[in-house]
Amino acid sequence: MLSQVWIIRLCPYLTIYQRYTHKAIISEFGELPVEKNSVNKWQFWVDRGGTFTDIVARRPDGRLQTHKLLSENPEIYADAAVHGIKSLLGISGNAVVPAGMISAVKMGTTVATNALLERKGEKTLLLITKGLKDLLRIGYQNRPDLFDLEIKLPELLYNEAIEVEERMSAEGKIIHALDEAQAHTALKNAYDNGYRSVAIALMHGYKFTDHEARLGQLARDVGFTQISLSHEVSPLIKLVSRGDTAVVDAYLSPILRRYVEQVATALNASDGGCDSLMFMQSNGGLTDAHLFQGKDAILSGPAGGVVGMVRTAAELDFDRLIGFDMGGTSTDVCHYAGEFERSFETEVAGVRMRAPMMSIHTVAAGGGSILSYKDGRMQVGPESAGANPGPAAYRRGGPLTVTDCNVLLGKLQPSQFPSVFGPNADLPLDADVVREKFKALAAQIDGNKTVEEIAEGFLRIAVENMANAIKKISVQRGYDVTKYTMNCFGGAGGQHACLVADALGMESIFIHPFAGVLSAFGMGLADVRTIQEHQFAGDITDATAQNVVDTLAVKATAEIVAQDIDPQNIQCVATAHIRTDGAHQTLEVPFGTPADMKAGFDKVHRQRFGFVPEYATLIIDLLTCEAIGSTGETVTIPTETPVDVTPLSGQMFSGGAWVTVPLVDRAALTFGQTVTGPAILTEPTGTNILEDGWQAEAAKGGNLVLRRIVPLTRQEAIGTSVDPVMLEVFNNLFMSIAEQMGATLANTAYSVNIKERYDFSCAIFDSRGDLVANAPHVPVHLGSMSTSVRTILQQNAGKIAPGDVFMMNNPYNGGTHLPDVTVITPVFDDTGHDIIYTVASRGHHADIGGTTPGSAPPDSRHIEEEGVLIDNFLLVKQGDLQEKAARELLTSGLYPCRNIDQNMADLAAQIAANATGVSELTKITRQFGLKVVHAYMAHVQDNAEESVRGVLDVLHDCCFSYPLDSGARIKVSIIVDKSARQATIDFTGTSAQDPFNYNAPLSICHAVVLYVFRTLVGSNIPMNEGCLKPLNIIVPKGCMINPNAPAAVISGNTEVSQAICDALYGALGVIAGSQGTMNNFVYGNDTFQNYETICGGTGAGNGFNGTSAVHSHMTNTRMTDPEVLETRFPVRVDEFSIRQGSGGTGAFNGGNGIVRKLQFLQPMTATVLSSHRETQPHGAAGGGAGQAGENSIVRSNGTIELLKGNDVAHMNAGDVFVLKSPGGGGYGHLPCQETEIEE
């Protein structure tokens, strides 16, 4: 039996040496020893990209050729890959490929990706468990852009969803048997309506497969030609992402199948024209064309680049790599440290995928990224000029782009670039028009800057954007990027590699001779691979894991053998995806003995998060087995005589001045020869810029190795006066640090609330405690943390020491409600004397005590009834965790915490997140100097302030009175002082504080005002303290949005914050009322506690409809997947659907709310905090109101109990809690309709 851990054997890899000829469309390369089975036959390795198709051909005599052509050129050819292959074979377009000519075609293709992006897949039907028809549409209920009032969700792939009468429990018990007659009728009706493709995804179908399998057979009997069963495409827990994956497979596989057949026919494969046709999968392995599935095709092309990156760099023994693939529209980056890294859950084009893919991070920064000057900041992208019109230099009237920066600075020399531009495609790059456009832009930005300085500034911004993308795959995950080599490829990579490396502190770069077509080259270096998966969810000591691995290995091996791979050439690798009990995040370690797996887990955990979880039970969440079939490719290329070329030179802007630099033809370099920068190295597939301080060496195999030979000066003298370049650089740097903090927190947290629902926020503050930057997390947290930070700094002035960390949740000192615990870390200078910054993270703890589980009592009157109040508590003293004192605090009071271990684990994650922020702030301080960082912390706030003043320039005085279910009102007036460019937001007239818990601390009111005015700006400015500077906020003491202690406040954070928000929008008139609630639903007992916020409808605006079933305004937390929920808690999701017709009508309709029915399987206490159960979300400009929400219980005996908006109930086994959330208001009158509106 296959019962051990196998190690991947790296397949032998090609080395090549290129003989370059400038302006040649087809490049030839040296001789190669030829495989036995491919004597006198061609091989083609193809990357069919979105813009260009790259082909590497291996001729029968062993020479290599490259060919590049447009992927779409319908006037000349139907398919680029086939046309390119026939061109290389010397065969006309319509001629048949003779038998025996081609041994193999290995291809990566964007056919599936393009169909997904353009939504041009197959007409698809979805079958799903009854009650969950809208589940994939609702997804995890979060909105994609936090500050967009017009929420745009991705377009659905399936055309129709049909609910099937069936239900399995999480334990495999049949709750409702499959109604085959109903299912057959539905399938037959759909077939008669033109459906041929169906995706089938049922609750717990990943584990209990009978119902899905039977439905699949019924679909085959009806005549469906594409049937994608979720347990076959992705046998993993999480119905939302597994269902999406099944839909993607059903949507794309027919498209792929037709493309494969088209290629096979064109190559005469059936009559021997091509012996083997294989395609690259997203996981980095080749597969036979007839096994190529839609779910495995999304990253087909980029995966070839990762394989090429690893295999080529191995020739020089580089085994720790950062892949840097820069193209025209975007840049792909990846990480390698001895093993291919894969993601098993990815979102692509708005679709959640649960399938193994190469871990590739994409950033919208490429050669075609458009340059702009907006909001006082020089900005690069995300918009791209594309191939048409392309950059300004392309002579098609295009805008200025990153490519034009390099043209202006002499880094792209028109004389060394193909003359393929202009109306007759025979002119060089237009440097003159580039200079003229930069002159105009320079005059707009800063008349004192030269065009060269402007271009260098834009280039720096682009470089920092790409460097931040690399940090996401390295620094955020605990890797020291300075110890890695960058493998640079892609058409634009060589122009920026040195600059990106400098931004990251990297000191070596590898550039392969085929760097310009490395993804295509990677197809020829790839192995045949398949990955089998099994959701295990057992302890690492569970002996049955070995049997599972053996079974997976047999299946994987059989699939490879079926593709004519010799069993002797097949290796298998078994991997365990391990997590701590109760956590979600898994780490991959080699499968082995329990002791080996624990040691592997501890090692990876320490590397990633800086500590080892003690006393934690380790769970194998997932087992995978990868079979790798070596294709036996063995190719080497002898070194050839370098080309003799006349030395050339050119002018390049470097170090603030124009300098003469050598133009070096790469083909002229001899082995061991070096070139010292600044210099330009040219080749047919790209240009490589050697920056000052760098040296290039011609290594064996024609490879180039670039090394920094002059230490980089880390302290930059950039001055403290505001500069539009550095303003954008620092804005992105500060944001990146906050995002890295958030990634650490999500990865290390214990609770579902923080880890899966993302109910947390991270931010950095200046030395005064003013908000500088935050990651786009939960709005109600972000604007209110400043008060907490300032409180800690003020109350402990002169007493804080380096290594101290504080925590607090006091609503009267900057907190929101007690479950939101803020952890605050002051950052000291090198002397340890002065606090120079502060970082903070706020996380919603699942339980912080109180009278009800989950700490959300509906009838609380005193803050103590809502949990443990924490005020200015020293959590870490000079680096030592005060665990005993913390535990004593959390168990104190009348209503202590119910799960102290979970609280402590989440606090440890918050401490780790803050440590990430401290580390990154320290790095930039060393790079730029403290004065500069302090200056730009002020500048980014000033920039945000000016953006808000710009909004005030077009606002007018307005007011609104917003009614609550209790009869209370929030009143607001906005008075604009045009001359001072300021506004007063006055809440005078708002009702007195509530005797129960509908009270919002003052910090929440400030957070809401900050959020609303940030959304009004309409462009991507940082949300920081500067947004509030032009605003004078008046909130009377003792009213419900500025209550006196010790008033209860649990509903203030969730309900009153939404009401304040809708009141402000009501006054401004820009959008109708949204659901106006977070629908807090908390349930539990002494063993289980869970907390949900539930989505609803959003308000319509002038020109757009509201959005259904999505979170709005002050929250954006995620909903736990129903399979995960039912596996971890004794509940059952009977229904989660869109509440049709609940949105208000108007010229633009409001979004619909949802219906959520949760059945309890054990006795528990359930608490709901919700609004708009009596009043309706208002319409705007004559639009109709949205429907109010409803809360009720259907008892197990069938009786129905109606509940109030805020209520608590004891749930028995079999009882069903029903929550119907409100719809959003409509905007504008319907034709021929008059509606009274409240002024």
TrEMBL record:
Residues 723-1229 form the Hydantoinase B/oxoprolinase domain. Residues 242-530 form the Hydantoinase A/oxoprolinase domain. One of its GO terms (biological process) is glutathione metabolic process. It is an enzyme of class 6 (ligase). It comes from the Bacteria. Residues 44-222 form the Hydantoinase/oxoprolinase N-terminal domain. Its EC number is 6.4.1.8. Keywords: Ligase. Coiled coil: none annotated. GO terms for cellular component: cytosol. GO terms for molecular function: 5-oxoprolinase (ATP-hydrolyzing) activity; ligase activity. Belongs to the oxoprolinase family. This is Acetophenone carboxylase gamma subunit.
